Amino acid sequence: MVLLPFFGASSVIFVRVIGSTGVAALCSLRVLSSLGLWGLLRYESLTCTAPVVLTESGWFESVRITISFGLGLHPLSLALLMAVLPVSCGVHFYSGWYLARDPHLARFMSYISLFTGSMVLLTVGTSTTVLFVGWERIRVMSYLLIAY
């Protein structure tokens, strides 16, 4: 669910094969599939009361400091994803329709997909490091979208 918008952003490398409209459709479908996966995970969380920790590993360890990487789904993150994913899905489909004649549509859809992936990463992060990475990616993508 976290990686699907990032995979949508990487579909910009196929712009010469499928065109800008195809890239917009791929990006939008990846976000839509992430929304569907959220629905399945939401159903799973309603049947089980314990939060689901997807990944917990160390990025960097030394004698004095340990920087960990963690993704988890708990009721608050699933509630926030209920706001993030449908709105992002709507923005993707509307942007693909509205900018259909723009020659740089693929680049814009890549930026939007990276922004969506960063919001999802920020929402499901369980460690401070992941929250920081998600927040900084949102900041950079916001700058690139405003500059577009």
List keywords for this structure.
single chain, 148 residues, alpha+beta, two-stranded antiparallel sheet, 5 helices, 2 strands, globular
Topology:
Blueprint: H1 3-9, H2 15-47, E1 52-61, E2 66-73, H3 75-98, H4 105-124, H5 128-147
Antiparallel strand pairs: 1-2
Q: Which overall shape is indicated by the principal axes computed on the Cα atoms?
A: globular
Order of strands across the main sheet = 1-2
Percent strand equals 5-15%
Q: Helix content range of the residues, please?
A: over 70%
**End-to-end distance:** 27 Å
> Helix and strand string, N-terminal first?
HHEEHHH
Largest sheet: 2 strands, antiparallel
Overall structural domain count: 1
Report the strand count: 2
Question: Low-confidence stretches at least 5 residues in length (pLDDT < 50)?
Answer: none
Mean pLDDT across every amino acid position: 82
The rounded Rg comes to 16 Å
Description:
This protein is of the alpha+beta class and 148 residues long. It has one domain (3-147). 70% of the residues lie in helices and 12% in strands. It has five helices and two strands. The chain has a two-stranded antiparallel sheet. Strand 1 (52-61) and strand 2 form a beta hairpin. Helix 1 (3-9) runs antiparallel to helix 2 and helix 4 (105-124) packs antiparallel against helix 5. The longest helix has 33 residues, at 15-47. The mean pLDDT is 82.
